[in-house]
Design goal:
Helix content is 59%, strand content 0%. It is built from 6 helices and no strands.
Length: 88
């Protein structure tokens, strides 16, 4: 969405104003970090959606990528991020 309207996500959501109103502090750092996180997540999702199997079919759907995952244990988290080695 921000690519279509050429504004960072923090500007679209008026994040700086919210931080200033809620916490009475300048929200520039919050905006930078939020924009970086949204950009990283958006790029990751776009790249995963472009992955194809040998027959040319999409490997992932948007629903699969955005589904909640169990990360309550270290093992579940490491599995989620693709860490293949056994825990010692």
């Amino acid at each position: 969405m921000s690519q279509q309207i050429h504004q960072p996500p923090s500007v679209i959501l008026r994040l700086n104003q919210w931080v200033e109103t809620t916490y009475q502090m300048d929200g520039w750092w919050t905006c930078i970090q939020f924009d970086r996180a949204v950009t990283y997540l958006g790029g990751w999702v776009e790249n995963k959606l472009l992955e194809r199997d040998k027959e040319g079919h999409a490997i992932y759907t948007l629903e699969q990528l955005l589904a909640e995952k169990d990360t309550s244990s270290a093992a579940a988290f490491l599995e989620l991020v693709g860490y293949d080695d056994e825990l010692e």
